[in-house]
Design a protein that fits this description.
By secondary structure, the protein is α/β, with parallel strands linked by helices. 28% of the residues lie in helices and 16% in strands. The strands form 3 sheets. Strands 6-5-1-9-10 form a 5-stranded parallel beta sheet. The chain has a 3-stranded antiparallel beta sheet with strand order 2-4-3, covered by helices on one side. Strands 7-8 form a two-stranded antiparallel sheet. Bound molecules: magnesium ion.
C-alpha cells in the first residue's frame, strides 16, 4: 500500500497533541473553516487591525506575528543562488527522519506525542547534560535517511523544522546531517499556536511562493494551516523495513518542476478534508 492510498482510505489516525497545559480557549470559528476562508474574509473585516480581528475571531495566541504582517521578517532568508527556483521541502525530525529514546523522558526537550518504545539497537546515542537534567538519548535513524538527505541536497531546498528544543535537536542533527545540507534549521520557537493547537508549523511565515513549498511531517496538527502543501508520513519508531522516505522521495521528484504543487497534493492525500474531520472529532 503506498502512502497516498493509506491516507485516502481514511485509516490515518493521530492522537491530539498532548503538551497542551497552557491551551488557549477553543477556537470560536467553525471546525470547517480554513485559513483560506479566513484570508478571504479579510476584506470584509476592514480597518487597520486586520490581524487582531482575525486573531480574536479564532481566539488563538500566536507567539509570532501573522504571516501577512509585513513588519515581521520571514523565517527563511532568500534562497541561495544555487537553490534559486527549487522546491522548498520542510522536513520534520522526530518520527519523520528518526526516532529517539530518552532514558527518563522527564524533560521538555521534545513535543509530547504518542510514541512506541523501540526494542532494537539504536544507531547512535548522545548524552545531554543541562542544569535541570541529564539524559541519554538513543537515536534510531529511519531507513535510507542519509540517501534521502543527499537527494534533498541535490534537487531541492531542504529546511529542517522541529518542534523540539535546540538543546536536544541540535546535537542530534549534527550527527544526522554531517554534510550540513539543511539550509536552515528551525526549532520550537518558530512554531505557532493555531486553532487551539500548539507547535504548529505555518508555512505562510517562510517568505516563499506557496505553490513551491512542501512540508513532510508525521504529525497532522503540525500542518494545519496549509493542508494542501502537506505530505503526511506515518510515524517511524524502529522498523528496519520502513520505506516511507523512498516513497516521499519519488513523490517529490515528480513535483520538482510543478508550478504549483497544491492541486497535486490535494488529489494525492485529500488532507484538507482529513484535517477538518480531525478538528471536528476533537
Ligand atoms: Mg514528528
Amino acid at each position: 500500500m503506498n502512502i497516498s492510498s493509506r491516507f485516502r482510505r481514511g485509516t490515518f489516525k493521530y492522537p491530539r497533541n498532548k503538551a497542551n497545559n497552557n491551551m488557549p480557549p477553543a477556537p470560536v470559528t467553525s471546525p470547517n473553516s480554513s485559513i483560506d476562508s479566513l484570508l478571504n474574509s479579510m476584506g470584509k473585516l476592514g480597518g487597520s487591525n486586520v490581524e487582531d480581528d482575525i486573531a480574536s475571531q479564532m481566539q488563538v495566541r500566536r507567539p509570532r506575528a501573522w504571516s501577512y504582517n509585513v513588519e515581521e521578517p520571514p523565517l527563511l532568508p532568500p534562497q541561495r543562488a544555487e537553490d534559486e527556483g527549487r522546491l522548498t521541502v520542510v522536513l520534520d525530525m522526530d518520527e519523520t527522519l528518526l526516532h529517539s529514546e530518552f532514558n527518563t523522558d522527564d524533560n521538555n526537550y521534545r513535543q509530547a506525542e504518542a510514541r512506541q518504545t523501540a526494542k532494537s539497537k539504536s544507531d547512535f546515542s548522545l548524552r545531554l547534560v543541562t542544569d535541570d537534567c541529564e539524559e541519554t538519548v538513543k537515536v534510531h535513524l529511519r531507513p535510507k535517511v542519509k540517501k534521502f538527505l543527499e537527494l534533498m541536497d541535490q534537487h531541492f531546498e531542504p529546511i529542517l523544522f522541529t518542534a523540539a528544543l535546540p538543546v536536544y535537536a541540535q546535537p542530534v542533527l549534527d550527527r544526522l546531517d554531517t554534510k550540513r545540507i539543511f539550509r536552515t534549521r528551525l526549532y520550537r520557537d518558530a512554531t505557532v499556536t493555531y486553532r487551539g493547537e500548539q507547535f504548529v508549523k505555518d508555512l505562510g511565515l517562510f517568505g516563499r511562493d506557496m505553490g513551491r513549498i512542501v512540508i513532510v511531517d508525521n504529525n497532522p496538527y503540525a500542518m494545519l494551516p496549509q493542508p494542501d502543501n502537506a505530505i503526511p508520513i506515518p510515524s517511524f519508531f524502529e522498523d528496519k523495513k520502513d520505506d516511507e522516505l523512498e516513497k516521499v522521495a519519488k513523490m517529490l521528484m515528480k513535483m520538482k518542476k510543478m508550478k504549483d504543487v497544491r492541486p497535486y497534493l490535494r488529489k494525492q492525500f485529500r488532507f484538507r478534508e482529513q484535517v477538518d474531520a480531525m478538528m471536528e472529532w476533537n
